[in-house]
Amino acid sequence: MENPVLVEVLRGTAVESRHRGTVAVVDAAGKTITAIGDVSRPVFPRSAVKALQALPLVESGAADALDLSPAELALACSSHNGEEVHVNSARVMLVKAGLDEEALECGTHWPKRMQDVAQLHRADVCPCALHNNCSGKHAGFLGLARTLGVATRGYIEPDHPVQMEARAAMEGMIGMSLSDMARGTDGCSIPTYAMPLDRLAQGFACFGTGEGLDPIRADATARLYDACVENPFMVAGTGRFCSQVMGALAGRVFVKTGAEGVFIASIPEKGLGVALKCEDGATRASETMMAAVIEALIELDEDESKALAPWLKPRLENWNGIHVGDVRPVREAFQGMRRAAG
Amino acid sequence: MENPVLVEVLRGTAVESRHRGTVAVVDAAGKTITAIGDVSRPVFPRSAVKALQALPLVESGAADALDLSPAELALACSSHNGEEVHVNSARVMLVKAGLDEEALECGTHWPKRMQDVAQLHRADVCPCALHNNCSGKHAGFLGLARTLGVATRGYIEPDHPVQMEARAAMEGMIGMSLSDMARGTDGCSIPTYAMPLDRLAQGFACFGTGEGLDPIRADATARLYDACVENPFMVAGTGRFCSQVMGALAGRVFVKTGAEGVFIASIPEKGLGVALKCEDGATRASETMMAAVIEALIELDEDESKALAPWLKPRLENWNGIHVGDVRPVREAFQGMRRAAG
Question: Taking the model in full, what pTM does it have?
Fold first, then answer.
């Protein structure tokens, strides 16, 4: 099955490039409301499942034992920019677990924003593992390891108790075993398991509503949902889709991006979950797709529409700041969604 | 017509993302040797046509009047990294035209390599227009303007003599008028005209062989071809496909990348030109496609194969340097090319 073109990149009025993708909108009972493209094809969800991977941290009692704040729980679900707040918060999370950055096994990379890079250069300092966009998640993993009383070394390995717990949480939420699914190594070195988009969407419908979950899990999902939507800056950072959209929609949706063009959303007021993948892996397209899905599924007031607008049709500007083009969703592709969602 | 998948991105052994594209291989007489996807669909060639846009600089006598070296001619065809050599060379080209960086209208952006960015930060200096990857091309445009005795201000405008000359050169080389074609504004603010890939390929077949060109143009194409293949570092820079591949193939091919997944090549020993576009605009895919095309069309010796190998199946490594996946061309898609090229 060919995935349809969902996003076009315009230069002037001409289509310059095109992005294809797959979108699944599913309710907590597993009913597919909308399917665009091959929604049963397994996809590596990458960072989009961080909130599921953080469930053991809460359910085990570790989050309470370590006295993690909601902002820190949000960081445990984040792919952050490596801004000062993110870096400091990850450091404090490790301190609460009696650890420091040496314990992190996620690897190191530069912060996302040029001004944060500049600060490091001017201080003649290299980034450390705390700057890694996954450092909050990994701090959460380490906190869980310490609370479980298991070795922290090797916590990134697939057979380490922390990764086994994370995997079990994902399996529980998507309602299927990952034993026969493809497994890869993620950017931050933990395992990533391929899973069908429709199952992922159902999982996030349950994540948002608590439906079909036992009480401990229902509480944990609510706690993580609230932590993220009330601390959106921690989930990503300045100028980022997840932070800006969750900030503007004030609790109505939880969204999370994943590398290689993946995006998920929980929309509790509609009892829905969304999972999508841009076929070629482009984030500029997955963001536009998710904005189009949100616009189709929920009624937005004026302020909410205004906040979503730059993500719905991002402007392309050249090196002189001239408006040279736009990224836009293919309207016809998303039109059916509004009616289907009811 | 659906463009076929030409490149796959693997995580482990599983396909994570896929890139579709279009490839045209055409001879100087306009005969299409291989066509993959819709090769008649107009495409903004972006920087891939810089060598054609540089023809007036040479044909007008301006290159000689300004005493431009082959390295400087190569820079006039470049999308460079903004390394010290590139920046200094662009500066000298402007000096030769009696100008300085204030005359550049391309806009400014940071250099490509982190170490060059670091150097600016440590000196507490912002980049200037010389760092713009198109500064060499623009220095060429300015040199042409001065030699023609026209105003340099506004040289980026579509109706400025310099842009009219560049357009006429492109029209002559691809054998068609651009009057009815879509026009956009490029990243560096000059106009970009959409043109069919098969015509673009034919144009670069002529560029490489001189066939079908009047003596002045044939000389000019040879001069620019030689300048680029003998000064490959100037055309892009450290770690870049165009520089590494032209360096390794020592004159056998001229290649040039363009934004949004465009690539061209001239292969004189086969009398062929190549033009390709990754549908979604990804450079990681257009590079892999071009490597696959080169491998299919010419016999490579051991050293040449070794140099091309990392571009034919790029390794993906994560933040810990672990090999997590690969980018690879879809073999079946390129198989027919070897036989067709003869």
Answer: 0.97
